[in-house]
Amino acid sequence: MIRDVLKLAPVLLLLGAFATYFLLNDGGSHVGETAAPFTLDVVSGEGTGDRVALDSLRGQVILLDFWASWCGPCRRSTPILNAMARRFRSDGLFVYGISSERTPTIVRGHAEFGAEYPSLQDAQGVVGAHYGVQNLPTVVVIDRAGNIVFQDAGVPDEDALAGAIAAAIASPATP
Q1: Phi, psi at 127, each rounded to 5°
Q2: Cα 111–41–79 angle (5° rounding)?
Q3: d(CA 156, CA 81)
Q4: What is the dihedral of CA 78, 84, 86, 89, to 10 degrees?
Q5: Contact, 96 vs 65, CB < 8 A?
Q6: Positive or negative, the Cα torsion across 25, 28, 74, 122?
Q7: Residue 30: per-residue pLDDT
């Protein structure tokens, strides 16, 4: 009997480690943290050829959509993000897609998905890593003070996303 328990010990330890990881891991969410600064090239959509520096957008509300051309849920989230861009544009919302794929792939995916907002290239995936992106799509909303107020992986719930954007728009530019 003791030998049987000892044989199971490594498995039980491994299961315990996984359980601890998943209980303590927030899934990569950085809600409540200051948004990591970045400067990326616009490779598709309005402003192609420009560079976007997050710091230059301080005082604005930003929605970041981490996506890839091969991602089915990313394709399904694009109409929701287009709707958010149209609905909140006059309130100062800036929407940017971010992909780590090669430029031609981003351009093709951007067009195929029908994205109505610019896409930026994060060629090394550094920005995605700073934001804890583990799954695609991941949507991040940054308020006027530069804080992450919403982060969710998967196709976003339209009402929850609209609520987060509206709250961010109503927030002051400084904490």
Answers
A1: -65, -45
A2: 30
A3: 9
A4: -130
A5: yes
A6: negative
A7: 82
CB 78 within 8 A of CB 63: no
8 A C-beta contact, residue 95 and residue 63: yes
Tokens 């794929």 found at = 101
Please, are residues 118 and 110 in contact by the beta-carbon 8 Å criterion?
Answer: no
Average pLDDT for runs of 10 along the chain of length 175: 56 43 49 92 97 95 97 97 97 97 97 98 93 93 96 95 96 77
How do beta strands 51-53 and 39-44 pair? antiparallel
Residue 37 tokens, joined? 């600064």
- Smallest CA-to-CA distance from 95 within 32, 129, 159, 52 is with 52
Tell me phi and psi for residue 65, to 5 degrees: -120, 105
Angle at 89 between CA 87 and CA 94, to 5 degrees: 120
Sequence letter at residue 120: L
For 22-59, b/e burial (b = at least 16 CB within 10 A) is eeeeeeebbeeeebbebebbbbbbeeeeeebebeebbe
